[in-house]
């Protein structure tokens, strides 16, 4: 079985942080989202991974992961030149996948559930597809599965009148049959080739489409708020894990776990946490920070206020501003 991760999206809702960084390289607890997806596949023994990218993203992603040697896997890069939907992205990988079953992940999703049951469905249980589902509050924002007698009988992308609250998450297992199904669908009203339409085609052809419902963490890291939430949840997932690099220097600091502090950071007279990630090479002095993401190379000193629920960009400089006596602050 191979793995396939889709990474070609622009991440425009995370601007300005994704102007010069692919969305799937934004860090959660100081780990790029794409790396978290790769690890999910490696947990299942998958060591051949295709990554679908826009050509403009290749330099950044290849610089981080190369051909996968450092992780002990083989990574291949596949181009999607135009953003025409998930099914279109999957189609670009047909030659790479060939006749093998594969696990498909959306590279901007943080998924905690094990994917072993999806893998087993297509490898051992003769299913042509297997989906990870979860109950959601606003079904109109997702692809929604209709279930009857413990079988998926229908699936619809962002329905006006949803037939359930079970949403399709960003994890799927497929056999090669999905490629024929993609060939038979047309663009949706929003001009995209929807993976939900391709799955519906499998259902219409009486193919076996299995599913598993999870109540574990799944977050589409597509907005600032969800990025902060993902950071908080991942830090909380294993509070016993030491996420402070050995090169970090602390002087007179209070650390409120869970936090993640990357290499070569220097902190003095700070109170950090809970739920704070601080990127590589940052230098902070006399700061108080909670539930925030500080990216690489940030310099901050003598802040008279609490930094909370914020994301600070790479190499930002934040210091207090002294005002002349008698001049009112705005």
Automatic annotation (TrEMBL):
Q: What GO molecular functions are on record for this protein? A: transferase activity
Q: Which Gene3D superfamilies match?
A: Hexapeptide repeat proteins, Spore Coat Polysaccharide Biosynthesis Protein SpsA, Chain A
Keyword set, alphabetical order: Transferase
* Coiled-coil intervals: none
Q: Where does the Nucleotidyl transferase domain lie? A: 2-236
Q: Does the keyword Ion transport apply?
A: no
Organism superkingdom: Bacteria
Q: Does the keyword Transferase apply?
A: yes
Q: Which SUPFAM superfamilies match?
A: Nucleotide-diphospho-sugar transferases
**PANTHER family, per database record:** GLUCOSE-1-PHOSPHATE THYMIDYLTRANSFERASE, THYMIDYLYLTRANSFERASE
Protein known as: Glucose-1-phosphate thymidylyltransferase
Biological source species: Paenibacillus cellulosilyticus
């Amino acid at each position: 079985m191979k793995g396939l991760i889709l990474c070609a999206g622009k991440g425009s809702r995370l601007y300005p942080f994704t102007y010069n960084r692919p969305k799937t390289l934004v860090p959660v607890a100081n780990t790029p989202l794409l790396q978290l997806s790769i690890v999910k596949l490696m947990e299942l023994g998958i060591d051949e991974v295709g990554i679908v990218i826009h050509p403009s993203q290749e330099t950044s992603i290849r610089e981080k992961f190369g051909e996968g040697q450092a992780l002990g896997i083989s990574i291949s890069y596949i181009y999607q030149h135009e953003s025409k939907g998930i099914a279109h992205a999957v189609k670009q990988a047909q030659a790479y996948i060939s006749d093998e079953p594969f696990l498909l992940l959306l590279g901007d999703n943080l998924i905690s559930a094990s994917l072993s049951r999806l893998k087993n469905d297509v490898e051992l249980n003769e299913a042509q597809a297997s989906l990870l589902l979860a109950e959601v509050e606003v079904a109109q924002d997702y692809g929604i599965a209709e279930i009857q007698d413990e079988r998926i009988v229908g699936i619809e992308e962002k329905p006006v009148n949803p037939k359930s609250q079970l949403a399709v998450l960003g994890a799927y297992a497929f056999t090669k049959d999905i490629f024929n199904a993609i060939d038979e669908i047309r663009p949706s009203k929003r001009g995209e080739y929807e993976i939900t339409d391709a799955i519906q085609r499998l259902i219409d052809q009486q193919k076996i489409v299995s599913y598993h419902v999870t109540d574990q963490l799944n977050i589409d890291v597509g907005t600032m708020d969800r990025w902060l939430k993902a950071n908080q949840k991942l830090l909380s997932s294993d509070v016993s894990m030491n996420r402070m690099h050995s090169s970090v220097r602390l002087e007179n600091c209070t650390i409120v776990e869970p936090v993640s502090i990357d290499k070569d950071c220097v902190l003095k007279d700070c109170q950090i946490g809970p739920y704070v990630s601080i990127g590589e090479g940052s230098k902070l002095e006399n700061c108080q920070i909670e539930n925030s993401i500080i990216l690489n190379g940030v310099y901050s000193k003598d802040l008279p206020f609490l930094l909370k629920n914020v994301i600070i960009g790479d190499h930002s400089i934040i210091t207090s501003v002294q005002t002349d006596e008698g001049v009112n602050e705005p």
